[in-house]
Amino acid sequence: MSEHKKQNYLNHPKGLMSWILTLDHKRIGLMYLFSGILFFFLGGLLALVMRFELAAPGNDIISNEVYNNVYTLHGAIMIFLFIIPAIPGALGNILLPLMVGAKDVAFPRLNLASFYIYSFGALFAMYTIINGGVDTGWTFYTPYSTQSSSNVVPMTLGIFIIGFSSILTGLNFIATIHKMRIPGLTWYKLPLFVWALYGTSLVQITATPVLAITMVLLMLERFLGIGIFDPALGGDPVLYQHFFWFYSHPAVYIMILPAFGIISEIIPVHSRKKIWGYKFIAYSTLSIAFIGFLVWGHHMFTSGQSVFSQIVFSFITYFVGIPTGVKIFSWILTMYKGQVSFTPPMMYALSFLFLFTIGGLTGIFLGAVALDIHLHDTYFVVAHFHYVMQGGTIVAFLGGLHHWWPKSFGVMYNQTIANIAALGVFIGFNGTFFPQFLLGLRGMPRRYATYDEQFVELHSYSTFWSGILGISIFIAVMNLFWSFIKKNKVDPGSNPWGGMTLEWTHTSSPPHPHNFEEEPVLQHGPYDYDKVIVEKTYKK
Amino acid sequence: MLDRLTEFFFPKQVSTFASDIDNLYFFIFYSSVALFFIVVFGMVYLSIKYRHRKGEELKLTSSKDHSNLLESLFFIIPLILVSITFVWGIKSYLQMVIVPDDAIEIKVTGQSWFWTFDYPDGGTTLNELVVPSNTPVKLVLSSKDVLHSFFIPVMRSKMDCLPNRYNIMWFDATKEGVYDIFCTEYCGTGHSQMGAKVIVMKPAQYDEWASELGSEDDDLPLDELGAKLYTKKACNTCHTLDGSALVGPSYLQTSQMWGQERVFDDGTSSVIDDNYIRSSILEPMTQIVAGYQGVMPTYQGLLSDRELDALIAFLKTLNEDSQI
Questions:
Q1: Best mutation site among B17, B19, B50 for testing chain A: the one with the most A CBs within 10 Å?
Q2: Does A524 reside within a domain?
Q3: Interface predicted TM-score (ipTM) of this complex, two decimals
């Protein structure tokens, strides 16, 4: 560490304007990251308000109206402002060009525009909160949403706008993956995170327009009284559900595929082992993205759709389950004959495997029509999608943050605290959501501000552990931020975990403003731990 | 043993198809537990066995990254399990949609935030569905406003209620008793209070009940009838008797303000008297008490004149009670 301060993307160029108008994918990624974390905390806070209200059966803290606003905003913020835009936007932006050896994404200006479109859309959502909230649920089911006097229009307009950001980012990533790879970096030598982003981007550009159209139709109905979804005007509410889920089911894969990508990076690096079944993981990512378009009807098993549709949708649903299951086995077998280190990223990856397996398996219960009819719109569903979205996506996201933190900022966080926080997240999460499976089986409906006495015990458990979960996530993120203050610098040439992809082997930490000082030359595949020994440069 | 487990996971089994659905649940449950055990065991075993030990040199690791045998197993075993699940799920589902010809038909109407039941021989109940045991009952469901969903956990059945078309569900109740009904499609402020009960009676008792429906209350004094109607007509969903505000103002408060001015959200006001109460029940949206949302449905056609008188009489008694 003798040389004077090297130029990197964080310190060069300087000044506020150089950030606001930056075209650097890494800086844009950081802006997504920090706005994402902000919304994550806001959504999390709303979740805790809900849990504390539900600790006892009656209206103890907040009224029904406030509860309905809180749960709607929790869902809308977490999905539309955090998970969908911020995870590909943050980790995808920072890493994709580095992983393919490019100077930047294919369209840097479009990339910046995409961030500002997202911010503009987010302003509408924030306006909604200041102006008294919205109480329709994040699904905006008609005719309630056409009749509700709350801020349906600002919220749906915000979501409509954010959709464009999603489409543009997807487009940019696809172009980057196709055209910006260095010579020799063929499709099968791409890191699996890149494959995952490719699948995500395909879904983003094909599904998001449907959401945009749906939101426009909803606004037209409210403004001009054109009957599309509201029966009072001659519309059909079930049509709305078809439109909405035709986007929102694929959106589940926009949320989970990047997580699959992160896990496919963390496990081989921290196990120092070639990934098991590379091609299978790569292709299953694309096939899941495709099949994801054909299963929306399983959200409507109690809507009264025809028996034939019920059977078809149930059948296709299982085609998503099987490749996902094989993927889980592949990640586990990757550890076979490796050298596994229990670092914070690995702790998150292992918790992901545990939690996502529960999330996936409980999806099998819901795919069986007869059983779904009992479980539909109960807490079983709430528990299921939190195991997938939080236990899956957010746990993987936290793992990814810990994995690439030293790369992005050139500093290392306290690994012991990080491990303890990861354990806290794992325990707190299971404590919060596992009882909710039982609640659902016993008949507790979702979206209830108050409930029957018989459910009180399980609800209070859930609330107790949600506190632990909240504190653990807070500690995990604060521990990361603390590394900015207590500068525990990693060596600029550093490769703390011994990663083999280009962002670890060919650029400094934090990276150079133009990513690489010269065009990288590919020397080995992304997971060739059987051919080359890559040293870990950071000792605890 | 299995019974105890069923009781742990599920509410009682009261419909003919409930036990089949619970068995399907247990089939998926045990298969999942087995698969989950393999995943967790594999994860813990491999990560500990191949952990990087202190002081151990970094080395080249195995290039093994596939095994046709293992991968085929991972593919075939889950495939068999989900195939069984799928077929079972459909088979049980068909039982739930094919309504027996001899079913008695009851019309169910959801409305923010109560349920109305219309019986085949005339007569209506609110928030209490009365059915005979061991008789197929077909429900024809619809909604008067937004979406609702009619869920009877003990029957393992639910169906959405739509404002523009009829949905159908049926069940054959096997045990007499009183069980919960919940609304499971979000419908606004009172969604979590939109509960009801299903009362399963012996067929003979049901016939007797049905023939007396509507006539039984003729000889009750007005205030007692009003007290009965307060729960029967679902007033209690939104109005309490203890002074606390729910969706609407408490009856106690209204009663205590008898003869005084009440201010509405458009700035006008009116004296609380018999006529005010009557119009509030029949045309609730014309005068909305300041501080509340105007969300109450009209009871026009749902209450007879005598029943209206009874509710007013009941409301008046509340204040007297509290002064004692």
A1: B50
A2: no
A3: 0.93
